[in-house]
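re the bet — no i am not wrong, look at it urself. input seq straight from the record:
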Amino acid sequence: MISRPRQKLDYADREIDCQEAMEPGFQAIIDCMLEVGWQRGEVMRSLRRLIAADNMTQKENAKVEAELAIARAMIRAGKSL
C-alpha cells in the first residue's frame, strides 16, 4: 500500500515522504526488469527517458490548455479567432 502525504498542504519533508512512499514500487519494477533479462543501466536510462517524455507531455498539455482557455475567453467576448 502506498503511503499518503502526512498533510494536504506543502510541508518540509513532503518530497522525502513521497520518495519513501514510492521506493517499494520502484524497487519492484527494477527487480522485475532485471529478472526478465534487462540490464540495470538500460532500465535506469529508460526510466530517465520516460520521465523526460512525461515532462514534455505535461508541458505540451499545459500549453494546449492555455491556448484553449484564451480561445474560449475570446469566443465569450464575441471576438473571432
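see?? The mean pLDDT is 94. told u. also The longest helix spans residues 40-76. so pay up
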